[in-house]
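Before the break, one more example. Copy the sequence into your notebook; we will annotate it together after we see the structure.
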Amino acid sequence: MHPFLGLRGEEITYAPETPLCDSLTGCNCNKLYVIQKKNVSIIVLNRIVGQKHSYFTIVSTIIWNIFISLSKVTKEERNTTHMIIKNHTESKATLTDLRKFHYNILCRLEMGEMGAEVLAGRSKSISAKHYLIHELDKMSDQYGRCMLEKFVAP
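Here is what the structure looks like once it is written out:
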C-alpha cells in the first residue's frame, strides 16, 4: 500500500484511523476528505507534523477501497511489511526505497517534480493548496497515466 500512495509510514497509520468527512465543501477539518476522479481517488489529509506536510495524495480507487477497509495499520504491521520486502529482495529494497521509487517515477514523467513534491508531502502549504484547488483534474489525469496505466494495469 505504502508505495502506491507515496506516503510516509506515519501517514499510512493515520489514514485508516481517521474518519471520513461528510462535507461536500472540502472543509479544513481534521477528517479525511475523498474526491473521486475517474479511476483515481484524491485523499485530502491536511496533516502537518513538524516539517512534514501531507496535504493530499492520489491513488487508484480500487487500491484506496481495499486500504480504507482496514481497521488499522500499526507500526508493527508496517515494520513486518518492511522486513518482508527487505527479505524478499535480499536487503536491496525497503518501503522507503519503494516510496522514493514512486517519487522518482512521478518526477520523470509528465507530473514533474512539483507534482511529485506535493504528493510526497514535501511541499509548502501554498503550492499544495494551489494544486488541490486549481490543478486537481490535471494532476489526477497525469497520475492515472503515469502510475495506473504504466504500472498497475495489465
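The CA atoms of residues 46 and 55 lie 4 Å apart. The chain is about 55% helix and 15% strand. Try to locate both features in your own notes.
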